[in-house]
Amino acid sequence: MTGDRKRGLRAVMILEQFEAYLVKEFARLVLAAAAILHREPNLVRVDPRPGQSVVVVGDVHGQLHDVIFLIRDAGFPSEERVFVFNGDYVDRGAWGLETLLLLLAWKVLLPNCVFLLRGNHESKYCTSVYGFEKEVMTKYKDQGSQVYRKFLRCFEDLPLATIIAGCVYTAHGGIFRGTIVLPSKRSKGKKGRKNKADVTVDSTSIRLGSLDELMKARRTVLDPPWEGQNLIPGDVLWSDPSLQMGLSPNQERGIGLLWGPDITQQFLRTNNLKLIIRSHEGPDARDKRHDLLGMDKGYTIDHDVECGKLITLFSAPDYPQFQASEERYNNCGAYIVLNPPDFATPVFHSFEAVKPRPPAHPFYDFEEVIDSDEELNLDAMDSGTSSQ
C-alpha cells in the first residue's frame, strides 16, 4: 500500500471518528434537554424573580443569524432575563438544525431562564414537507435517520403553553376548545384497530377550553388524531384569530379553530389574564388574511378588548428565506419584552434581517410546496408521511 493511500485511509478513519463523536455529543445534548422538557407540564407557569424581565420570541424558522442577533439585541438569557420561545424553530430556513441545537443548549444551561414551547412545525408531518428532515439527513449523512428520530422524540416533550407572571398566556397558535370525548369505533374483524376519526365538527357544539383541560391533554402525539383530548394540542398549535365573533373550525387550514374578539375577552376574563401572545402567522399567511393586519413590523395587535389584548408575534425577518418570486415580503421580525412589576405592558422591538445572509441551499422544493401551512394533507399527517 502506497504512502498516499495510507494517508487517505487514515484521513477517512479520522473523519468517521469525528462524525461519530459529533453524533454522540449531539445525542447527549438532545437527551439532556428532552429530560428537562419532559418534566415540565403542558402549561408552564413562568414566575419571574424580582427584577427579572421576560423576552417572548415568535417563529424563527431556521434563520440562525437572525436568532443570534435577536438574543444579543435583547440581552442573553440570565438571572435578570427570562426567554420564552413560542415554537417553529425549524423548517423553511437553511439552519434549523443549528438553531434548534443552540436553543436546546440554552435550555440545558439555564433551565429556569429559557422556556421552549412547541410549534406546529415541531412535528413529523411538517418537518417532512418543509425541509427539516432533509436538512438533518443532508448534514448528518449516514447518521441522519438516527439523529432525526432523536429530534422527533424531543419534540414530543416540548410543552404547549406558558402563563407568565400570572397574567400573560403564550402559545404558538392560541386558544383551544373544551374536550369532547367520542366513543372509539373499531373496524369489524380487526380487533384493536380504530377507524379514522371524523374531523367534521358542528360549530355550535364547540366551547372554549379550560386551563385544567389543557394541563390534561396528551401532548406526546406528534401529529394527533383529531378526537377526544387530542383535539387540544391541534388547536393550541394551529388555531388563528379572526374578527368574526365566536368559535368555529379553521376551514382554511383544515385543523384548529378560528376565534373572535368575544372569545379573547372570555378567555382573558375567565382566567384572570391581560394578554395573549401567539405566533404562527408570518407575512405569507397574513397576505391571504385581508381581515387582519399584515406582518410588516413583526407583530400585530389583533384583538383589543376590555380585559386586554391578543398579539401575534413573528420573529423571522425577510421571511421566508427561500421564495419562488423575486418580490419579497421584506418584513421585520420582532420580540416582546415584559417588564416588572405588572408584566402586562408589552414593549415591542422590531428588527431587520441580518444581511447579507451566507449562501445556502434550500432543503425543500419551495417552488412547489404551498407558501403557508394551508390545505394540509390530513391523510398524510395521520400516517406521519409527506405528501411530497
From TrEMBL:
Transmembrane segments: none
Catalytic activity of the protein: O-phospho-L-threonyl-[protein] + H2O = L-threonyl-[protein] + phosphate
Similarity field: Belongs to the PPP phosphatase family.
Hydrolase among keywords: yes
EC number: 3.1.3.16
Protein name: Serine/threonine-protein phosphatase
Annotated Serine/threonine specific protein phosphatases domain residues: 117-122
Species whose genome carries this gene: Panicum miliaceum
Any one GO MF annotation of this record: protein serine/threonine phosphatase activity
InterPro entries in alphabetical order: Calcineurin-like_PHP, Metallo-depent_PP-like, PPP_phosphatase, Ser/Thr-sp_prot-phosphatase
PANTHER family reported for this sequence: SERINE/THREONINE-PROTEIN PHOSPHATASE 5-RELATED (PTHR45668), SERINE_THREONINE-PROTEIN PHOSPHATASE 7 (PTHR45668:SF9)
Group of enzyme by EC: hydrolase
Cofactors, names only: Mn(2+)
Keywords of the record: Hydrolase, Manganese, Metal-binding
Record keyword Hydrolase present: yes
Protein origin, superkingdom: Eukaryota
Active-site positions on this chain: H121 (proton donor/acceptor)
